[in-house]
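A further point concerns the way the authors explain their paired sequence and structure data. An entry of this sort, consisting of the sequence and the corresponding backbone structure tokens, reads as follows:
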Amino acid sequence: MDIDQDILKTMKSVVEGLRTDRLPWWVSWREIADYYLPQRYVYLMSTSEARAQRTQRNAFILDGTGTMAARTLASGMMNGITSPSRPWLRLNIAGQKREELSRDALIWLDDVTLRMLLIMAGTNFYNAMAQMYLDLCVFGTAACIIYEDYHDVFRCYSSPLGEFYLGQSDRQTINIVAREFTYKVRQVVEWFGEENCSQATRDAWKRGGAQWNQDVDLTHLIEPNYDTKGKLPGKFAFRETYWETKSTETKVLARRGYYEMPGIFPRWELTSNDSYGTSPGMDALGDVIQLQHETKKKGQGLDKLIDPPMIADIQLQHKPTALLPRGITYVAGVNNVGVKPAYQINMPLNDLSVDIAQVQQRIKETFHNDLFRMISNLDTVRSATEIDARREEKLVLLGPVLERFENEALSPAVRRIYSIVNRADLLPPPPPEIAQMEIEIQYTSILTAAQTAVATIPIERWIGLIGSVAGVRPDVLNVPDWDETIRYYGQQLGVPAKLAVPKEESMQVTNQQHQTAQLQQAVATGGGLAEGAKTLSETDVGGGANALSKLINPYGA
């Protein structure tokens, strides 16, 4: 589609400004990629460097501890936050407690949650999340675009480091995103249609054959839809534009509007007003470089120790030698030494090995491997209480990171997916009492539940104290509101609403049980009195003092 030349010029200027802002980070990311993931991020290299890299695999990595530590952290977060094998989120009505909602509302919320999780499992959502966790742990910043899809309802497109640029709003949330990437001619035509492509791309498409595999440089810009120049309909909060980077035509490939930001862009940790985050990969980079240096020196030392540089008698020049084990080389002259080491090798192998092990351990701790491999790394068998205490201590370190990831990745992703699924009419209609209410998201993943479970410890200690005191003072059992205590405890642990009887029904059943217990007690008491009266009336006590004594002591004791 044709577009006003001034609008296109403005958008190109926005991308240029974002590129300038990202330049210092780009230099840092290149070094990080060399020591962690050198084969993945070709957008951090020039074209000639990328071609050379294909023949020089892992040129900077001699010890893969840093890479494995990053993958362990990414896998642990994937399994602990958004595991595809268990529910990790729960929908609720904003500003209301679940116990205040009707049973129909709770069932609808649980049903919608289940449908969304099933749809996510049928797409590439979890594959994209796994890649996002790795980028986040190594580089501190990740990006993923979520588009509606005819086949899978929605589809996720992960963007590697070096491909995208980010800009922040006044609230330090990402609201401007630009990408520069490459597609083949065939992909561009299939995605945007031949009529929207530049003349050069259309010509390559018509020629066919190898021309279809030619690279086409594309630029993509997502920005708020608030200015008047080039504004789309006001119902859209964001707009995006695609154009061919090298084309001189005033034509764009596509221009669309979105009700919500179509992408998610989490950062591990922010410093001031930076648009990009810092990461454990940056924190451990010095140790990783030191590890490669020491590993290289250790290898060189072992080579010299096993196969040292030699000096030889000039008489042996051009003479056959046998330096293999048990080999013998004959030298003219008894007192001459034919071959000997040039110098003595005194390598502190043990000290070097210990230092390398310490560096490896520091790298693993920086990537929180001790949290996700806590049990397997224990030297001795520990009690469950001690393991829980250690886990709670480690979770404190990940608390701010988990909260930021929920705010910058999970919540925008869930809202985006919910909107797409809802627009596709794949959700049941809500009950009337909550139809106009705002839905909020609660997370029930392993890490979230583990952190939430820390809040249940006081409840467990309180109940344990009551149980201990009850042996001496049974009346302390009347202090807690047991129904509210159990329900609150279950909510903190993420127990589904279907497993709990509604509060009204529970109270009704409890009242009926109390009434039945009181009636049974009254019947038992009344029966005992009636039996005692019958026995007393049939007793032959005689008269006078004898009768009085038998009434006082009927058993004659």
Q: What stands out?
A: The CA atoms of residues 204 and 228 lie 36 Å apart.
